[in-house]
């Protein structure tokens, strides 16, 4: 008997043979091309991509403006290293991001290559400014896969494994999770208890927080909580870092998620969608804090690569007149309405939450116990894929489906995607 293998089979076999098992694969497909919200695999199958490279493609796959900007820069040069010779795209992108920093006064920007690098450098800068060692992060958080990133991450089982020992002087406080019983008041009391019992506030250089948890399940930090943290940081001379790596660049309907609260950070980390698909990250913050490290203390060989900076400028152009943010809020409203309708019909949809189009569903075995149902979430992902929709799970219990649909999605494309999504949930839940 002749056994026929597809190109996908061959390539996935090559992946298993040549790539370490530690790199996960959410979907057993191999991409061939993509445009906007659509992705096609090597067999020619079409998918609506609601993952977006894990929040990298807020302006969609291969946006023509981004492609044109990168091509134009490539005809000039692709790399010099900014520490060797400066170049205008880096300078102009920094200038424009400084103008967007959500706090008054002079801001400065440092570019890097990955979100984890941005996290690492924000901590370095805060320590240099305060001359203090300790850092506080939160439960359910994710801040990267480097040593400091893993240490800061408040979701240990999946990411930390046996990779320790980890960075010293990093502590975790509770993140508010009302659906699972952690109120704002309880979270703040947990932070105060940490100050009383484990690390004195006078030793803390920085508090780092995602305004909307990413890997942690798209939990928005309540405004009351953010305001209290800002007050605590002011009281104790602590640098407040907003990690906007997944929540930024329009994902929530504001350019930065924290803008909706009116709370002003001291430093802000970004990555993912700022490059429109190219690797770039950075830290923007108060100039006096950003200038704390001495010459030579910051940088990186590929940090702020010219091609990625050119892409970043094109991405900012797309947000310039506000229409894309307005459309993002419209997308968020449609998603929220569709998901709350599902929640009304299907008891396994325990919670619908998010900020703007950064929205998620949490699946439970029943609404009384609220016991997480990660198996159902997995079935939803698999059922959606058969219908031509790519989804991704999240959350401490892997029972959350998060939506990262490109903000450039048209109404017709969104309707088609929602039909696939709701059909997948109903089929997987048996409802």
Automatic annotation (TrEMBL):
Record EC number: 2.6.1.19
Coiled-coil blocks: none
Top-level lineage group: Bacteria
Cited Pfam families: Aminotran_3
SUPFAM superfamilies cross-referenced by the UniProt entry: PLP-dependent transferases
Enzyme's top EC category: transferase
UniProt entry tagged with the keyword Repeat: no
UniProt keyword list: Aminotransferase, Pyridoxal phosphate, Transferase
Cofactor(s) essential for the protein: pyridoxal 5'-phosphate
GO molecular function (one): 4-aminobutyrate:2-oxoglutarate transaminase activity
NCBIfam families: GABAtrnsam
Family designation: Belongs to the class-III pyridoxal-phosphate-dependent aminotransferase family.
Protein name per UniProt: 4-aminobutyrate--2-oxoglutarate transaminase
Gene: gabT
């Amino acid at each position: 008997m002749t056994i026929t293998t597809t190109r996908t089979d061959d390539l996935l076999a090559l992946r298993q043979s040549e790539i370490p098992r530690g790199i996960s694969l959410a979907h057993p497909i191999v991409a061939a091309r993509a445009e906007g919200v659509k992705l096609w695999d090597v067999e020619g199958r079409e998918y609506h991509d609601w993952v977006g490279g894990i929040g990298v493609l807020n302006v969609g796959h291969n946006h023509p403006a981004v492609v044109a900007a990168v091509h134009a820069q490539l005809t000039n040069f692709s790399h010099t290293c900014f520490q060797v010779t400066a170049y205008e795209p880096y300078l102009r992108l920094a200038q424009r991001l400084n103008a967007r920093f959500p706090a008054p006064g002079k801001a400065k920007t440092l570019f890097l290559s990955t979100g984890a690098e941005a996290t690492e450098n924000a901590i370095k800068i805060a320590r240099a400014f305060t001359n203090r060692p300790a850092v506080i992060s939160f439960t359910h958080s994710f801040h990267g896969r480097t040593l400091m990133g893993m240490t800061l991450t408040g979701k240990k089982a999946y990411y930390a494994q046996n990779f320790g020992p980890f960075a010293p002087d990093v502590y975790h406080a509770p993140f508010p999770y009302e659906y699972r019983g952690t109120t704002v008041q309880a979270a703040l009391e947990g932070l105060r208890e940490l100050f009383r019992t484990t690390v004195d506030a006078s030793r803390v250089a920085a508090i780092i927080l995602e305004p909307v948890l990413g890997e942690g399940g798209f939990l928005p930090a309540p405004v009351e909580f953010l305001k209290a943290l800002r007050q605590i940081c002011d009281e104790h001379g602590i640098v407040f870092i907003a990690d906007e790596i997944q929540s930024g660049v329009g994902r929530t309907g504001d350019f930065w998620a924290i803008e909706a609260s009116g709370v002003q950070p001291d430093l802000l980390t970004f990555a993912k969608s700022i490059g429109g698909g190219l690797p770039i990250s950075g830290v923007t913050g108060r100039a006096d804090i950003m200038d704390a490290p001495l010459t030579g203390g910051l940088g990186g060989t590929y940090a702020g690569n010219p091609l990625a900076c050119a892409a970043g400028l094109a991405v900012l152009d797309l947000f310039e007149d506000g229409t894309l943010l307005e459309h993002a809020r419209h997308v968020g409203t449609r998603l929220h309405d569709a998901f709350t309708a599902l929640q009304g019909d299907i008891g396994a949809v325990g919670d619908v939450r998010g900020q703007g189009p950064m929205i998620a569903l949490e699946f439970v075995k029943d609404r009384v116990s609220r016991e997480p149902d990660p198996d159902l979430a997995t079935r939803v992902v698999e059922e959606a894929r058969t219908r031509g929709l790519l989804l991704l799970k999240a959350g401490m219990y892997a029972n959350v489906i998060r939506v990262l649909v490109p903000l450039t999605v048209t109404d017709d494309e969104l309707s088609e995607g929602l039909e696939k999504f709701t059909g997948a949930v109903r089929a997987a839940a048996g409802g």
